[in-house]
Amino acid sequence: MKATCLNFNKPIKDAISRIRFAPASNNLLISSWDSSLRLYDVDKCELRLETPAEGAALLDCCFESESVALSANSDGSILRYDMHLGSSEAIGNHDDLATCVEYCEETGQVITAGWDKKVKFWDARCGSPFGCLSNVDVEVESVSISGLNLMVALRSSVHMYDLRYGLVQAKELSMDINIKCVRSNLDLEGFVVGSTDGRVALEYLGKSNSKNEGYAFRCHPKDKNGRHHLVAVNDIAFHPFLCGVLVTGDNEGHATIWDVLNRKRLLELPRYPNSIASLAYNHEGQLLAVASSYTYQEASEREEQPQIFMHHIDDRQIKSASASSSKRK
């Protein structure tokens, strides 16, 4: 599966924190530590927007709509961008680093979290706050939304909130795992987490049975001596249409596509020059974007120029690999 590298006339100057595809187009949103938010038109191979650098590092980003984006920043601010006008405004703040931002289309809420041990809720229509969870006890590194379910990763547990009613359940993972990222999926009726030691755990919501019991696996290659590297799984992205198909990316530049329903590795992508900071499928599942960038996690990280690689996904190849793995079970 060949990849093309996105071309920027002015290179991204610092680590990439997050990439996200737009809800209904192939526009890619990019946040980075160089304080700029970028919007790249993948179809036309051109940069449509680069906001002025204003000091704070951008630690996360997301789309509210095709023309509106949000960012969570190292100074605690939450910014809202009008990408038609190229303007931005602050809608609120955290008392420490703001590490996560998500938008719930069903409720019109912006959800943010940070190192101040708070999860905050904002009305996207007027930018005003209307709720705050201040009892999470630890710094929040990762959150995820699917439908009306909000997942908040807190060290070795995941708390699930119904955005209409509040806390539904707290799911403590059965193994000793330090969570790096959490990603939820409505079709799967569950969620996955990536750990700091190279494991991925799949957990289902509701009551388990023999057909949908969660499990964990290691997701990057063994070394020459047959031992697993203890490398963080930085990001996980679900394919938008193939249920149970996801891609993982780790801090040593390995990306792998998995069928977690059939417990099978489908495809291992060529190793990238840097750590994998973020992954994103487009809305049709035909494109996979991979952000190759140092992440400031390890002293030994390579500090190559941050790059974004674009893979054209052949669904037939993925489906064929998945069907073959099912027959071999």
Automatic annotation (TrEMBL):
Species, as recorded: Sesamum alatum
Database matches in SUPFAM superfamilies: WD40 repeat-like (SSF50978)
Protein name per UniProt: Mitotic checkpoint protein BUB3.3
WD repeats: 91-123
Domain of life the protein comes from: Eukaryota
Lineage: Eukaryota, Viridiplantae, Streptophyta, Embryophyta, Tracheophyta
PROSITE patterns, per database record: WD_REPEATS_2 (PS50082)
Entry keywords, A to Z: Repeat, WD repeat
InterPro entries referenced in this protein's UniProt entry, alphabetically: WD40/YVTN_repeat-like_dom_sf, WD40_repeat_dom_sf, WD40_rpt
PANTHER family named in the record: MRNA EXPORT FACTOR AND BUB3 (PTHR10971)
